């Protein structure tokens, strides 16, 4: 196991831990605490909606897929350029309820990232700043369990943006479809590794292929949010019972 | 509209019935769908469950089953289901289960109802299953100008009309003044004003269209016969008038001229002549290689020239397909070309062997007779001889003539008939009375086994010689057939021998028993059973039409088929024929020899849906046939005689 990348080792340990039946149960307490301490009305409103008892079956929980596109990968230097959310449940994804925002970055856009997500400098020049839309975004997330593909980007960038504009951290429970994918598709036995088998790709679109989900245009926050919502439906259908407690899935 | 909805919209816009929607409605649909994922093996709709949404397969595959659990249908990307239940009582009649991991888009019923109310094509599609075909066929038809443009568009001036007593010299001067190459000859003879040639002139007089005189007639029938300019036109005009109605398509009019080898065609509105169409008008209107091909066949002076021309036939075929001609047009053009070859060969044969000792009629059978020929069709033909036939005296002549035609056709890439249904076979080169005997025997003492090989004789097409001999046989058939239930039952039994598959699914053909095949013979499993089926109905209603579409028109005038079935059969037939034709054209273009075996990977997805619908229409019609012409009990057997 020592030759695994750092991040995978972490995932592996965490899933080991899940399998022992332990639940990540601190979230309700943490959010309640934040609600008391926050000085921002929008954050207070969000935290007031709370979260779910970790024992709640996943099929009973209203979900929302979230995707942010950024200028780069480093939350301290790069910033958010667009946010897409798609509310859904395990049964249905109502497309009409999706929302999308472009966000003016804190720093100038590099040419590289323009190619990446097709948002140009002029698209973003007139876009609102993060603090102007954060209220609307939080309204969409309130009362729903957030689903992302790869926790780090969404969690760290939202947190960094909140610290910058609101001077407060913004953390909440997330279900990570990539972690679920890593757990179910990346556990190679020592024999498989000995034979040189490469681990499968955990990126959003290759992961979707494994569930026979159609290819979508990648790197648009809203399309990726929809793609993530569909992926979670597929993952739960394939790997979990409908009454799986949310505490097993979130992190 | 958000990009995510664009993804949805783009996908749905490719498939019927959503492809008929205007942009605004499509936007509505794309913004209001709900999405859900179903793992392989899970139920999507269960029996008697309430449905309030139309379901659209975005990816994956589902299986629709009957109440009994029997496989009813399999659907893939772009297919819809659940909508017929919305229109009925909102309860699921056919349960649906995912057989692959499947993503479904749900469209709310209110929106579905609004779409039906607003868009007729959409409504037609969902209300009558087969109409995906209709839309496709109509589309193809409107794409083709020559087929849809009426012949009256080419008529630019009134016809020059002269009285039957007018001297030819004066007629010639009128032709010069009016700068025309033909005149119509009128008479006021005949008391009955209701004859087929009688019409009311614009001045209100009742006249009769007696004949036609062309500039060529002036030359050949007048000057060459040493007749003077004072001869009344009535004595030199041609009286065998072929005409066309003004609402005939240009294509139909052209084919009429080519089939009768005439250059001038009077065009009638009701019964009044409104002009004369010349072949050159059509050529000017639209240059088509196949028309040139037919006229060059007539201009050849020997077999070598015909063989050379025959190399152009596949090219003409491929070009017709390219230009968007429909199956009906292509079949007719190819049959006309084939008949032209035969007619020219007969002409050459008669020139070599001398004039025929007794009158005869040369006919084609099968696809050529039905005007449904494709490329490289087998030759099927027969000869009816006059009843004065004496074998010892005359047969040598006709045998040589038959051999000349048959060998000539073979040289022109029309392979010999494997079943030996050719006039070279003495059995199919007989006097009229013997032919009558054949048909009586087939109809009055039907034996399904024997009829299997002779169904082709119920498609008789005229090529050359005495038309009335052929009409005599056709009359006999249409008189006898409807009165012989045993014969109809035997024919319909044979028509059920070949059945269509359930449909195309992914990369294979799905058979009704759930088996997979990698290719389908479009003729054996599609067009041929359809032709057989329509033939039975046509025989039952005494139609003497040969073409399947024409037969369907005759059948439509009766009450043989339930309402709507007729149209659906026509669309199914045109569609399968067209897929077959395109498949062959593709082979020709890539220098392969065309066949009828279609592989599903060569079919576009929307065509796949249509093909499936067409097979379904055929399948239903076959079931109906079984029930419509049951084997009668033995006691009723004698009644027809």
Automatic annotation (TrEMBL), chain A:
The keyword Transcription does not apply. Keywords: Exonuclease, Hydrolase, Nuclease. Pfam families: RNase_T. SUPFAM superfamilies: Ribonuclease H-like (SSF53098). Residues 62-241 form the Exonuclease domain. GO terms for biological process: DNA metabolic process. One of its GO terms (cellular component) is cytosol. NCBIfam families: PRK09146.1 (NF006602). The keyword Protein transport does not apply. InterPro entries: Ribonucl_H, RNaseH-like_sf, RNaseH_sf. GO terms for molecular function: 3'-5' exonuclease activity; nucleic acid binding. This is DNA polymerase-3 subunit epsilon. Transmembrane segments: none annotated. Coiled coil: none annotated.
TrEMBL record, chain B:
Keywords: CBS domain. One of its GO terms (molecular function) is [protein-PII] uridylyltransferase activity. The keyword Acyltransferase does not apply. CDD domains: CAP_ED, NT_GlnE_GlnD_like. InterPro entries: CBS_dom, CBS_dom_sf, cNMP-bd_dom, cNMP-bd_dom_sf, Diverse_CBS-Domain, DUF294_put_nucleoTrafse_sb-bd, GlnD_Uridyltrans_N, RmlC-like_jellyroll. The keyword GTP-binding does not apply. PROSITE patterns: CBS, CNMP_BINDING_3. Gene3D superfamilies: CBS-domain, Jelly Rolls. Residues 17-115 form the Cyclic nucleotide-binding domain. Pfam families: CBS, cNMP_binding, DUF294, DUF294_C. Residues 155-231, 237-293 form the CBS domain. SUPFAM superfamilies: cAMP-binding domain-like, CBS-domain pair. This is CBS domain-containing protein.
